[in-house]
Each structure stands twice: as structure tokens, then as C-alpha cells.
TrEMBL record:
Keywords: Transcription, Transcription regulation. It comes from the Archaea. It holds the Pfam family HVO_2928_N. Transmembrane segments: none annotated. Residues 182-230 form the HTH bat-type domain. The keyword Transcription applies. InterPro entries: HTH_bacterioopsin, HVO_2928_N, RNA_pol_sigma_r3/r4-like, WH-like_DNA-bd_sf. Residues 3-170 form the HVO-2928 N-terminal domain. This is Transcriptional regulator.
Amino acid sequence: MQEFDFTVTYEEGADDLMDVFVRHPGLYSRTVSCHASADTMWRVDEVTGPPDALTAYDRHLRGLPRCSSLQGMGGCQLDWDHEVLAERPTSRLIYSRQSEGEGCRSVPYLVTKRLGDGALCRAQQYGNTYEWNVLAEDDAALSPIYEELEANLRPGLEISFERVDGSPDWTTDRPDADDLPPEQREALRAAIERGYYDTPRRNSLQEVAEAEGIPVSTLQYRVTRAEAWLAKNYLSGRTEFAAESAEIGETAP
């Protein structure tokens, strides 16, 4: 199997939904599952980010007037349904169904059209970038897919295509809150539930600590350590269990 990447970059103002990612650098989306037939695409996406970014994302998602970054790149009229399967303060799980229209060509649709069954697709969105990864046995039809995508781009979008050298890495390891020390996990949960991360902030750490009945210095330490763990694992893309466990061990007074 060989991996191929289609990367689309967006100018601000070219796409209403992608503008939310541009304006909120902490917003990130990845496919959990994706399936395409000759005329329809179904997918589940996990979107994570700060509450204010997700609120903006929700608002734009409900009002999509045309084929957008979540669906495709042609800017055609939209035949699309979606449902929020799970909603949390810092994440959404979204199911969507899209029928492909004239001039509206998503990567999964074109891969299925050219290669038939047997190719796998996944995607991620962040900043001004929308990246599709395709895992396929045959690369003969990948160049025509790129050419058709390029021909359907509207102004403000650019696309690049490359074959990834080396073995494909499709691991899905992600930071798991269960790997945090219990005290740090509970501190983070309390901070989220009591609105410390809301915009505007509903409670300060001191107020959260008072409500939870623990010293503010202890809460501050635990939240800071949990945030550091999440940041490191987010950037690394996977959880290094043994090393991280030693590094974040609970040593607060």
C-alpha cells in the first residue's frame, strides 16, 4: 500500500467554514470514518478546540449555503445533511452525508470513481489547511484525480499532491485522559465543568478551587501539569505512555 496526500490551502474569505479554522488556530478536525459510493459520501468527523471556536464552527455549519471545506471544493449547490452525534465543551462528533453534484468533487468520490473499492481516505483540517490522505494499492489513477480536483477549485484555493515516501503511518494514538494521574484528570474536569475555559470565563481557578474544596495552589499545579501533558501529546500526535507517566507524576504538596 502507498500513501498519497492532497493538500488544499485557503485564502481567508474564500470559504466561510474554513475561515473559522483560520481565525481560531486551536480548532482541529479529523475524520473518524469515511465511506464513498459512486454518488454519495458519508463521514464522521471529530472537531476539537476552545469553546468559542466550536461555537463559531456550529454557527457556520448550520448555515452552509454551498459545498464547503467539509464537503468538497467546487462551491456548488449543497445536497447535504448532518447530525451532531456528541457535543462536549471542547469537542463535537459530527455525522454528515453528501450527494456529489456537477462541479462538486470530493477526494473520496473521485478516489472511488477512479479506483473502485479498496482505497482508504482520511482528512484533517487546521489553520488554512485541509489535508486528505489516500491509502491505495495502485497509483496510476491518482494523477487524474489531482487534475480533476484542480480543475474544480474556486478562486482562493490552491491544491498540491504528493506521494509519501516510506511506510504509511496511519496510527490513531491520541491523548487519553485516563492516562493522566487521577488528581490531574479530576482537576481538569472541574475546571471545564465550572467554566474556567469558557469565553468569557465563568469562574477563576480560585473560584473553582473554593467550589471543589481544595487549595488553589494545588488546583493550579494539577491543571498546569494536565495542560502540559495534553499540549505535548497533541503536538507529538501520539501518547508515549512510559516516558510521559514518569514526566508528569503527581508530586505536588
